[in-house]
Design brief:
The chain has 10 helices and no strands. With 258 residues, it is an all-alpha fold. The protein has one domain.
Amino acid sequence: MLHILVAFLASIIGAICGIGGGVIIKPVLDMLSNDGASAINFMSGCTVLAMSLYSVGKELVSKNPTFDYKTLVPLSIGAAIGGILGNQLFQTIKSLFGNENIISSIQAIGLGIVVLGSLIYTLRKDKIHTIVVKNTVGIFVIGLLLGTMSSFLGIGGGPINIVVLYYFFSYNTKQAAIASIFVILFGQLSNLGISFLTNKIPSFDTTSLLLMIVGGIFGGIVGRKMNSKIQEETVDQLFIMIMCVIICICIFNVFKYR
């Protein structure tokens, strides 16, 4: 029940704020469960992948798909390669320390820094001048970095995707959400794909994973419906509040796994 409840509620909040559920699922499970860093990374990745597949599929069949292919293609390719690099980075640190508590602590520190940076940007975004990257190599590198980071941290994407897409491409909310979904989709596909190919799938509870996937998809559906009924100012306030909560959870997890 813990897993489906976390996935469901995280996906509702993620869909309302446009940050996805992985950035909430990962630290909350680190805090409340004893599944281990590898299992939580894998289950969170599978849940995020299922949610992104649903979202992309829904967008593809919509009447007015808004795909900027000149940006999405190199961004997605970069994210796919980044997903592999992030997976390898996780495995390297795992073999180096041989202790999953240390990995969880490192991830908590990394996630806390990323979310804090996103929070600062959000609070000051009205004073920040955005740019538009059009160079294909530059777009690829951005996707590479986002894919690597999200794969290693096991979060899928989260607020950092939205912040980066806002700043480097001057996207509006709709465009950033779509591009973020593609980054998450290809990053997690390659991340999980390399785990299967190298036979480095951690031990996990199959029932918990299936419940998380179901809870994640239905939470996303509910969250999108709620988003359409909530004022933008309220969404912004919820977004800031959730990032503050995630930072607090990350601090707790650092001390829990030290």
